[in-house]
Structures are given as structure tokens and as C-alpha cells.
């Protein structure tokens, strides 16, 4: 499918999506139009062939697929101003805005096919984990949206009721992983490495561990078993961490984040 894509909101997320789609070769730059009030900051994308505009209406009229990448407080005003421009029979609206439900969007756009997508910050390097929910969207269009976000990392379809949980596991989870890596670096320095070398070893080790699970589809315990020998140093370290509450503290942290979202 050779669809034209409009990205309403040329901030960090909107530009990251545009950059990723260009770099992957999934969409020709001339088939992307991105909007922002101050288009001067979009000069680099424009230089690569992307169309830029400060008029959201123009973007909607141009596109087959519209990606809404604005701040949550801007959503209502923008959707109100664009409601009459959307064409439910030929367009799909994709929202990447945190905390805004499909139902909320539907109040402004009626029966418009709507996809809610939640990427994380690794979208900037085409390594996002994006969770996707949809309403009134054909299988063909949903697959196209999945294909878009699979160019920017990995995408999975979930029930919308799990979006808060997905935010914790896939977005807050980035910070949790970073904190684990930081602790590894601190430990590495204590046992003799300089900070830069400890950073490299810790980050690459975590990347490699994640790739083992992604490429092999294995359970973490299967890979743990391969490096834990009887009376060895790995099992000694793992057991000490568990005695100190390693797994339980992580789980409690996830639940605390989820409870915070649920209350707000």
C-alpha cells in the first residue's frame, strides 16, 4: 500500500516517527506531511523531502492515514477544529497520545476508524515497544498500522483496557531497565572498572539478554539455567539478590506505577 501519512504534531515523538519511517524505507519522504506551528524546527525533515505545514486542515485533506502526536491538553481543541475534515470512509486516525482513550477521541470524530498506539522513547532509534488497540478499523488498515510501528521497533495488539498496564510495562519499564543498568554500572565500578567501560559492558549485556529472548522466544529461566552452574558465582549472586528482595521489589514497583495511573 502506498499511503500518504500526515503527522499532526512535529514535536519529539512526531519527528521520531517520521525519521523512523524514512530510515526504514517504509514510506517515501514525499508521502509524509508533518505539521507544527513553528515549521522552522522541521527544516531537517524538509531537507529530506518530507512535506511540512503549519496548517492541520491541509494535512488531514492530504492524508490516507493521520497520526495525532500532540500534547494531551491540545487534543480537544485540535479534534474540534478538524472534525469536519476527516473522511471516515477512506481515512484512519492513529493517536499516539498518552492517556487519551479511543472513546474520548470518538466523541469528536464519530465513527471514524481510530487506532490508539502507545510507543516508548526508544522509537527515536527504531527500537520502540508499541502497544496498539483499535475500534472500527478494518483488518487491512490495522495491519498497515502494525506494519508502520514494526518499522519503528516491535508492535503488539492488545485490548484497550490494558493500555494503562502497557504504559507501566512498556514505557515506565524503560526507566526501570535504566535503573537496573545504572546499578550494574555502579557495581562494576566497585569491582574495578572505570565508568565508561562498566557502562558499555552493562548496556550491551542487557541488550544481548533481551535479544536472546526476542530471537529465540525463550523464557528467561531457560537462559538463566545456561549460565548458572552448581556452586557457581552466578547462582550465588542471584540468590543474594533474591534474599534482598530483587524480584519482589520490581513487581511492587510495577504495581505502584499502575496504581498511580489508575487513581489519576
Provide structural commentary.
53% of the residues lie in helices and 14% in strands. It is α/β, with parallel strands linked by helices and 264 residues long. An eight-stranded mixed sheet has the order 3-2-1-4-5-6-7-8, sandwiched between helices. Helix 7 packs across helix 8 (195-216). It is elongated.
| Helical content (DSSP H or I, runs of 4+) | 40-55%
Oligomer: single chain
SS strand fraction: 5-15%
Whole-number mean pLDDT:
95
What would you call the shape?
elongated
Total number of β-strand segments? 8
Give me some keywords for this one.
8-stranded mixed beta sheet, alpha/beta, 264 residues, elongated, 8 strands, 11 helices
Protein topology:
Blueprint: E1 5-8, H1 12-24, E2 32-35, H2 43-47, E3 51-53, H3 56-62, E4 65-68, H4 75-82, E5 92-95, H5 102-109, E6 114-118, E7 128-135, H6 139-150, E8 153-157, H7 163-190, H8 195-216, H9 220-227, H10 233-243, H11 246-263
Helix pairs in contact: 7-8, 7-11
Q: What is shown here, in short?
A:
With 264 residues, this protein is of the alpha/beta class.
Amino acid at each position: 500500500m502506498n499511503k500518504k501519512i500526515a503527522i499532526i504534531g512535529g514535536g519529539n515523538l512526531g519527528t521520531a516517527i517520521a525519521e523512523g519511517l524514512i530510515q526504514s524505507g517504509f514510506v517515501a519522504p514525499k508521502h509524509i506531511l508533518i505539521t507544527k506551528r513553528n515549521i522552522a524546527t522541521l527544516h531537517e525533515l524538509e531537507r529530506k523531502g518530507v512535506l511540512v505545514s503549519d496548517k492541520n486542515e491541509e494535512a488531514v485533506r492530504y492524508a490516507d492515514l493521520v497520526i495525532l502526536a500532540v500534547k494531551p491538553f491540545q487534543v480537544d481543541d485540535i479534534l474540534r477544529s478538524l472534525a469536519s475534515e476527516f473522511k471516515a470512509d477512506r481515512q484512519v486516525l492513529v493517536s499516539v497520545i498518552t492517556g487519551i482513550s479511543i472513546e474520548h477521541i470518538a466523541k469528536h470524530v464519530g465513527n471514524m476508524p481510530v487506532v490508539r498506539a502507545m510507543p516508548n522513547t526508544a522509537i527515536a532509534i527504531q527500537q520502540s515497544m508499541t502497544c496498539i488497540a483499535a475500534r472500527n478499523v478494518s483488518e487491512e488498515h490495522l495491519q498497515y498500522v502494525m506494519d508502520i510501528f514494526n518499522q519503528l521497533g516491535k508492535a503488539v495488539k492488545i485490548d484497550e483496557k490494558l493500555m494503562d498496564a502497557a504504559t507501566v510495562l512498556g514505557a515506565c519499564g524503560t526507566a526501570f531497565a535504566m535503573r537496573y543498568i545504572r546499578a550494574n554500572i555502579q557495581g562494576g565500578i566497585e569491582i574495578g572498572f572505570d565508568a565508561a567501560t562498566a557502562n558499555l559492558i552493562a548496556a550491551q549485556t542487557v541488550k544481548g539478554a533481551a535479544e536472546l529472548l526476542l530471537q529465540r522466544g525463550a523464557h528467561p529461566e531457560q537462559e538463566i539455567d545456561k549460565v548458572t552452574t552448581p556452586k557457581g558465582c552466578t547462582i550465588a549472586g542471584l540468590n543474594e539478590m533474591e534474599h534482598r528482595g530483587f524480584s519482589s521489589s520490581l513487581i511492587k514497583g510495577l504495581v505502584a506505577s499502575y496504581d498511580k495511573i489508575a487513581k489519576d
